[in-house]
Amino acid sequence: MPNLSSDLTPIINKRLNNLSASKIRAFDQKVSSIPGIIKLTIGEPDLNTPDHIKNAAIRDIQANDSHYAPQAGKPELLDAISNYLERKIGIHYDPTSEICATVGATGALNDVFMALLNPGDKILVPTPVWALYFQLIKLTGAIPIQIDTKKDNFILTPQHLRHVLDGRGKGAKAIILTNPSNPTGRVYPAEILKELAEVIKEYQIYSVTDEIYAELVYDTVKHHSLSEYIPDRNILISGVSKAYAMTGWRLGYIAGPKEIMQSICKINAFLVTAVTDNVQMAAVEALNNGHDDPKEAKKIYELRLQFMKTGLEKVGFEMATPQGAFYIFAKIPEQYGTDDEQFAFELAQKAQVGVTPGRYFGKGGEGYVRLSYASSNEQMQEALKRIINFVKNL
Ligand code: PMP
């Protein structure tokens, strides 16, 4: 047998060779090997998929609905997505031409980037941000232009966007906005979105919004989409992963203007043919009849958020108030140093709590750590106790 472990660099796609391996994953692996560790590094709900959703898939399997689905998605699913978006943001997307089902929101991001971006194109990425965007953008040969939003409490302002479009982002084709945000939990107010939409129109760029956490917004905050203001320029990405505790099912979707969606759906069909048949029927059930599921989950997350936020602030962590998703992005108190990587490593080794260094989320994340509160209540309580003891003893 030939030795395949020899250096494969020359035959691997050059763009792939230029990508650094996910630091988040590498850090997570290192931390996972520490005995007794409580990991607050994970971006997925600890809750289970509700039974009525599981049963919809089981019924579909038993009915032998196990063939290739239509490439853009089953009509039942496309209708369910269309109705859902109309209920939530008041925009009608035609199920037959303006929506496409994908393998998770991740698959949707891939489809959209591949359909829009040529090598050398610029795309604006407000940071800190979920770092996978950088890798997927670079795979197309395009250039992510980071916009550090720290000074504005992690919200991109219209003035800042304009400034970048007049400067180093000149000629950019698009911007991607995560709302609510991973890692900061920040949610864009309607007035800011409206003004951002004006700038996007004026500069004739396109926007892509990742709204995978749209159902998880807390307190009196309401989720809005850029699609409400520029439906002809925005490509909306979402899915069922986070709202219905369905990360493993892998179902997302894209909605946008017909002309662009044609190309995006074509890419999706090239890459995956169609999303898994019975998974689509589970998503139909979630979107049509799962209205209360995210509400139940939100009650649990919101209590955890308050508990964690209060505890961390007592020992000097600062944060722009998280309003959605299930993350806290906290500034490490200065007396404990500004090196987030070192802080996170020491916290893992000495106190057995895993948090993610902020710098892994791009510019503006240095000196911060991300904590996910999608772990069980018991784990959260124990983790907070350990963090408090750790910083008190530093
Ligand atoms: N977008 C953001 C902002 C995320 O945080 C995640 C998951 N970490 C995803 C997309 C991926 O969603 P999915 O599991 O549906 O691919």
TrEMBL record:
Positions of the Aminotransferase class I/classII large domain: 37-387
Required co-factors: pyridoxal 5'-phosphate
GO MF annotation, one: transaminase activity
Keyword Mitochondrion: no
Pfam families given in the database record: Aminotran_1_2
Enzyme class: transferase
UniProt keyword annotations, A-Z: Aminotransferase, Pyridoxal phosphate, Transferase
UniProt keyword Transferase, yes or no: yes
Enzyme Commission number, as recorded: 2.6.1.-
CDD domains per record: AAT_like
SUPFAM superfamilies registered for this protein in UniProt: PLP-dependent transferases
Recorded family membership: Belongs to the class-I pyridoxal-phosphate-dependent aminotransferase family.
Stated name of the protein: Aminotransferase
Source species: Lactobacillus kefiranofaciens
